[in-house]
């Protein structure tokens, strides 16, 4: 689960990582006046008597917010209201604006903690050149990134934090606060079962203070059962359908093409996605109902039907996800939902003979070959094009 | 021959009294696997398909020495169950569960590396040497999907594996040993780590890798070929060529991040090392045939 910047900063602040003082303004459609007024009020509170500059930051899961004009400075209340309106006018789905007191920055650093799957350890990455895209930096000048591996049993040691601090060329007055921050980030990462905890940029002020300029905190989905305080909300998803699917535990990704994929098995679904694209077709949605979801055919088809797709393509080759159970589920779903678009079925695996009888008795043709099924779906989508558009 | 498991391999099933554990123990026995004991705390004295159950792995192996364990254990108890098998001296462990916490996996893999044990999984169907042994869940009875033979297979996927092995059988080949390393971000064992064993197995004539976007396991295979650790023909199928970057579409491990993991990079690395890469499952059979023809003419 990827947290929004403001949520990540809340977790950081609780762990003792300094973050700018801020106010959160929640957004809703058609409330630009209210939002602008609240942003202005926040700017007033944060600016104080010295009338300090604030930064208005759109809270959404997107890289390059600055370049897209979704992070704006404002010198006073009036500007805060104006830039808030400009951000909202860009038409993105923005759940909230974070209004922060601007920081007097001397340098921008980079610091993150993640896992190294091959060496089976945790790994800190740090760079004296923060605020940039770390992936391009890693490609272009890998020497600019420092790497420290943390044994998953011994944990972070003090010398490792110091090593990073000295390698970044921090002056003496900043060494102590940096190692404290490294400790705090490690605690956040371990205690919240994170997959990534990143601060980019990490501000260093003229006073030697370190402040998290941004947060990227991704919580491991497999660990959510032992975490509290991280809830699925509509704001984390691009569409109502994706949110509904997530609540049911069904992996779903929205696209804008013509063929709804309803596949069992993540690898197989990804392969069918490729085959549709290779064949000149286009995908309306990726949906995977294998594993623990193989009895959820009706729910899966309901989600597909909420799309404006022209055809539903079902491909499975399950072992535990029994073919006969899925075939019966699909036949029941068709009877209940009466889909207004053709359904192509290619269902194989455990008990496939019975599955094929079930499909035939319901008037569906059981295909055995994945590529043939994909071709069939692409042809049907082309035939149906006039009808749905 | 085979690697990891053969007809001699003595297997303990942890979680045998559960629904899936019992169901797949039946199939493992039917295929000829030597399942010697089951483990479920609190159920010692019971039997499942005439296999005795013990409270702990140590109590099981004291009565029935074992070489390998397969875990039908929920993800949240996986770390404990793997440590228990290791503590009892077992060094080949297959853990099937989908949903093991990421940081648990880092600790499990670190432990396995330090103890020189092989832990395979999670989020996998397991390991099968068709006709000899099985630790996990495969529809081995569907003849057009699983047949004994000379192709070593390693995969990150389940359903897709059935799809691809059916293409192997269609091309006239069969499988020596198939190892499902699983679809997670931290596979507990990685593709390249098995290549020396496949190299030394006289009955494995080629290896097929079923990979996908994300991570660096396919690149490590290319490096192992370059370093001469594997010298037999190698064919790969890699899914996710058209997946948008940064979107997690399938397995937890199937995402392009940090500038690594794109299918393009994987294909380039494998081809540069001399492997053949299929863009779709149906191309796998032809590429295997070509690889063998080329190996013969050399």
Helix content of chain B: 25-40%
Low confidence ranges of chain B: none
Separation of the first and last Cα atoms of chain A: 35 Å
CATH topology of the largest domain in chain A: Rossmann fold
Major interchain interface with per-chain residue totals: A-B, 56 and 58 residues
CATH architecture of the largest domain in chain B: 3-Layer(aba) Sandwich
Fraction of residues in helix of chain A = 25-40%
The CATH topology annotation of the largest domain in chain B reads as Rossmann fold
**Total beta strand runs of chain B:** 14
Beta-strand percentage of chain B? 15-25%
Keywords:
heterodimer; A: 389 residues; alpha+beta; Dna Ligase, domain 1; D-amino Acid Aminotransferase, Chain A, domain 1; Rossmann fold; 3 domains; six-stranded antiparallel β-sheet; five-stranded mixed β-sheet; 15 strands; 39% helix; B: 298 residues; alpha/beta; 2 domains; seven-stranded mixed β-sheet; 9 helices
Describe this structure in words.
The complex is a heterodimer of chains A (389) and B (298). Helix content of chain A is 39%, strand content 24%. Chain A has 389 residues and is an alpha+beta fold. Chain A has three domains: 21-101, ATP-grasp fold, A domain (Dna Ligase, domain 1, 2-Layer Sandwich); 105-226, D-amino Acid Aminotransferase, Chain A, domain 1 (2-Layer Sandwich); 237-388, Rossmann fold (3-Layer(aba) Sandwich). In chain A, a hairpin with a 4-residue loop joins β8 (194-205) and β9 (210-212). In chain A, α2 (32-47) packs antiparallel against α3, α5 (158-167) crosses α6 (172-191) and α10 (323-337) runs parallel beside α11 (352-361). Helix content of chain B is 33%, strand content 22%. In chain B, α3 runs parallel beside α4 (102-114) and α7 packs parallel to α8 (263-272). Classes of the chains: A alpha+beta (389), B alpha/beta (298). Chains A and B meet through α4, α8 and β14 of A and α4 and α5 of B.
């Amino acid at each position: 689960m990827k947290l929004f910047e403001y949520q990540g900063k809340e977790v950081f602040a609780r762990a003792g990582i300094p973050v700018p003082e801020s106010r959160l303004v929640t957004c809703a459609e058609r409330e630009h006046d209210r939002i602008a007024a609240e942003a202005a009020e926040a700017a007033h509170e944060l600016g104080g008597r010295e009338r300090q500059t604030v930064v208005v930051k759109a809270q959404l899961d997107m890289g390059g917010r600055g370049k897209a004009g979704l992070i704006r400075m404002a010198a006073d209340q009036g500007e805060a209201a104006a830039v808030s309106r400009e951000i909202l006018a860009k038409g993105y789905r923005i759940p909230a604006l974070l209004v922060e007191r601007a920081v007097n920055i001397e340098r921008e650093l980079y610091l993150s903690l993640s896992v190294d799957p091959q060496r089976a350890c945790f790994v800190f990455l740090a760079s004296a050149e923060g605020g940039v895209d770390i992936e391009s930096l890693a490609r272009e000048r890998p020497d600019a990134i420092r790497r420290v591996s943390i044994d998953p049993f011994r944990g972070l040691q003090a010398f490792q934090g110091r090593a990073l601090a000295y390698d970044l060329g921090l002056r003496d007055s900043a060494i102590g606060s940096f190692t404290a921050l490294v400790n705090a980030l490690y605690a956040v990462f371990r205690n919240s079962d994170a997959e990534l905890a990143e601060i980019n940029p990490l501000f260093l002020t003229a006073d030697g203070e370190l402040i998290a300029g941004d947060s990227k905190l991704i919580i491991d989905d497999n660990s959510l059962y032992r975490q509290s305080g991280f809830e699925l909300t509509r704001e984390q998803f691009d569409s109502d359908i994706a949110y509904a699917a997530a609540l049911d535990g069904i992996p779903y990704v929205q696209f804008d093409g013509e063929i709804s994929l309803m596949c069992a098995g993540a690898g197989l679904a990804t392969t069918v996605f490729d085959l549709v694209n290779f064949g000149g077709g286009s995908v309306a949605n990726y949906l995977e109902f294998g594993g623990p979801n193989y009895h959820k055919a009706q729910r899966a088809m309901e989600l597909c039907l909420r799309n404006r797709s022209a055809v539903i393509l079902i491909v499975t080759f399950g072992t535990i996800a029994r073919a006969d159970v899925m075939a019966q589920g699909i036949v029941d779903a068709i009877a209940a939902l009466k889909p207004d678009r053709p359904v192509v079925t290619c269902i194989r695996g455990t008990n496939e003979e019975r599955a094929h009888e079930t499909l035939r008795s319901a008037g569906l043709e059981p295909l055995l070959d994945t590529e043939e099924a994909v071709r069939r779906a692409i042809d049907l989508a082309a035939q149906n094009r006039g009808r749905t558009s | 021959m085979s690697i990891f498991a053969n007809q001699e391999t003595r297997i303990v099933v942890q979680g045998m009294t559960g629904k899936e554990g019992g169901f797949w123990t039946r199939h493992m026995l039917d295929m000829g696997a030597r399942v010697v004991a089951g483990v479920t705390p609190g159920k010692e004295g019971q039997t499942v398909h005439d296999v005795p159950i013990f409270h702990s792995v140590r109590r099981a192996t004291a009565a029935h020495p074992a070489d390998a364990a397969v875990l039908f254990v929920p993800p949240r108890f996986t770390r404990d169950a793997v440590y228990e098998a290791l503590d009892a001296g077992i060094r080949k462990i297959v853990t099937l569960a989908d949903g093991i916490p990421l940081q648990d996996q880092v600790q499990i893999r670190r432990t396995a590396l330090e103890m020189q044990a092989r832990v395979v999984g999670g989020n996998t169907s397991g390991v099968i040497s068709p006709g000899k042994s099985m630790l996990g869940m495969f529809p081995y009875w569907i003849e057009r999907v699983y047949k004994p033979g000379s192709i070593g297979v390693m995969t990150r996927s389940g359903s897709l594996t059935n799809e691809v092995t059916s293409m192997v059988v269609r091309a006239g080949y069969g499988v020596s040993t198939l190892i499902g390393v699983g679809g997670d971000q931290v596979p507990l064992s990685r593709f390249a780590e098995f290549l020396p064993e496949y190299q030394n197995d006289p009955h494995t004539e080629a290896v097929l890798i079923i990979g996908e976007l994300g991570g660096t396991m396919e690149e490590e295979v290319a490096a192992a070929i370059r370093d001469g650790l594997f010298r037999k023909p190698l064919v790969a199928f890699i899914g996710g060529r058209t997946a948008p970057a940064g979107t997690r579409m399938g397995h937890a491990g199937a995402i392009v991040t940090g500038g690594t993991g794109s299918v393009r990079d994987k294909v380039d690395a494998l081809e540069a090392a001399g492997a053949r890469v299929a863009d779709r499952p149906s191309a796998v059979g032809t590429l295997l045939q070509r690889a063998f023809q080329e190996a013969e003419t050399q």
